[in-house]
Amino acid sequence: MMNNVERITKLEEMLEKIQKELNEIKCSDNDNEYKVDTFERVKSQEAFYNISLDGVTTIFKQFETEQFEDFNNNCFKNNNYFKSIERAAEVKSKIELLLRLERLYDTYCPDYKPNWNDNYEFKYFIEFDCADNIYVSSYTDAYYRTDVYFPSEYIAEKVCDILNAELERNKKNETMS
Question: What CA–CA distance (Å, rounded) separates 153 from 159?
């Protein structure tokens, strides 16, 4: 059974693959519109799930009943609308990790902006190594990914150390529960 971090990594890989596929979609001969399936809402009075930043360590909020009112419409419009609690939990984990990375970025290098015109400047980012179940740093020099970037390997490794220590604490807490 995969843990949350493994699921996040797997989902990120799947998302990257889907994004590449979407970029390769050709325009329709008939109407010049992209052929993309649409995500459908649940039926009226059925449950859906959304994520809420509520000031507590957990950001998951229980479902609301679809009534096509402002709150429901805003959730759907802002892509904060999930048909299952499992899917909402997966996205919640990704959001929490992204927010944690952004906080560490603000702590260690708030003024750093990657120069995408400079192919000789390494841009460091964090990824999860599923084989070893740890965060590791990596770098790129020429292409933009939707990651949080750090200006040096030293800072990226420091961030990995922090995340790995948090991961260990979480593992210990889970076994104690």
Answer: 10
Predicted confidence at residue 24, as pLDDT, reads 54
78, part of any domain: yes
Verify that 50 and 115 share a domain, yes or no. no
Q: What CA–CA distances, in Å, run from 30 to 25, 35, 99?
A: 15, 11, 43
Residues 1 and 69 in one domain: yes
- Average pLDDT, stretch 84-105? 89
135: nearest Cα among 10, 6, 17: 6
- pTM (2 decimals)? 0.67
- pLDDT value at residue 92: 85
Of 155, 148, 107, nearest in space to 127 by CA: 148
In angstroms, the CA 66 to CA 81 distance is: 10
162 occurs within a structural domain: yes
Per-residue pLDDT for 136 more than 50? yes
Q: Output the pLDDT for position 28.
A: 37
Residues 39 and 118 in one domain: no
